[in-house]
Design a protein that fits this description.
335 residues; alpha/beta; Aspartate Aminotransferase, domain 2; Aspartate Aminotransferase, domain 1; 2 domains; seven-stranded mixed sheet; four-stranded antiparallel sheet; 37% helix; globular
Length: 335
């Protein structure tokens, strides 16, 4: 399925990426290239530097989650005594912060060719790799062609309770197993979690397209409101992550998220029941919604109705929610 010789189970995606980096970067003067909006750089507590002693060289991610190949080539450093040595290039697919963007196959092929040219291996942060495969209609092994290693999260779209995989060559995974041990990632009596992981890989991949379609349903409902202060870029909605663009002059993202967890009487009357929707303020102008196996078609209908009601009620000046969060009622989590 993934096209590698061997795999290793680890407790989390953050640990999976850290172990992979440590196995590629065994010298203290090592450097990795990462995007400025990638998960490794933004959300993993700088582990590559604080734990592994590896220097991150940060390149700008384009809106589609890619990094300019020409810039990559120019920034790879050789063994000059003044600089750290570039030992790894990291990509992310789908790209979380950029809104679940799927990296195009021709781009990946271009980066693989570049990596061979400069002699630097590639690592894929594949936390949501099955979503990329579902969106492209290809097996995950095709996406990872030419990569030296990858991670795969079992507990996001695939719905396992916990865990991630690292994949690579047999020798790479042998070293990864040692590194997992020293980081405290070894787990005993883990068969029940492994069983859930097997189910995730064998069964849950086939239903990911449903999440993508439900995300599009919500996006279309939002855009049907015709409000310039709240919209979704449908052309760039690739997978199960939906970014709602909000005009901060109308409502700030954290205020919108609070409002979506409230149900004033007039809303309950209009919708027929109280509905609370949990979502995440991604930036100063974006709200993130993520569709997954626990959100059904019926849930999406409720969320869409609430979104339309709330967005149509937005005025031309910034509003501040005044209600209280629901303690009871229907709760739909799309965060």
């Amino acid at each position: 399925m993934l096209g590698f010789e061997s795999a290793l189970y680890v407790p989390s995606g953050t640990m999976a990426n850290l172990i992979s980096i440590m196995c590629h970067c065994t010298a203290r003067d090592s450097e990795i290239i990462v995007g400025d909006k990638c998960h490794i750089h933004l959300y993993e507590q700088g582990g590559c530097a604080t734990v592994a002693g590896v220097h991150p060289r940060v390149m700008p991610n384009r809106p589609d989650g890619t990094i300019d190949p020409d810039l990559l080539r120019a920034k790879v450093r050789s063994e000059d005594v003044h600089y750290p040595v570039t030992k790894l290039i990291c990509l992310e697919n789908t790209h979380n912060y950029c809104g679940g963007k799927v990296l195009p196959l021709d781009y990946l092929d271009q980066v693989v060719a570049l990596a061979k040219e400069v002699g630097v291996p590639l690592h894929m942060d594949g936390a949501r790799l099955p979503n990329a495969a579902a969106a492209l209609g290809v097996p995950m092994s095709r996406i990872l062609r030419g990569f030296a290693s990858s991670t795969l999260c079992l507990s996001k779209s695939l719905s396992a309770p916990v865990g991630s995989l690292i994949v690579g060559s047999a020798q790479f995974i042998k070293q990864a197993r040692r590194t997992r041990k020293v980081l405290g990632g070894g787990m005993r009596q883990v068969g029940v979690l492994a069983a859930a992981g097997l189910l995730a890989v064998d069964v849950m991949c086939d239903r990911l397209v449903d999440d993508h379609q439900r995300a599009r349903r919500l996006a279309e409902a939002i855009n049907s409101c015709g409000k310039p202060g709240a919209s979704v870029d449908l052309e760039n909605l690739h997978s199960n992550i939906l970014l709602l663009d909000l005009d901060p002059n109308v409502m700030l993202p954290d205020q919108f998220c609070q409002r979506m967890q409230e149900a004033p009487p007039e809303e309950i009357q209009a919708l027929g029941e109280p509905v609370a929707v949990h979502m995440f303020p991604m930036s100063s102008s974006n709200v993130r919604m993520v569709l997954h196996a626990d959100v059904s078609d019926a849930d999406v209908t409720k969320v869409a109705q609430k979104l339309v009601f709330v967005i149509r009620g937005l005025s031309g000046s910034r509003q501040t929610p005044t209600g209280t969060r629901l303690q009871r009622g229907v709760s739909v989590i799309v965060e």
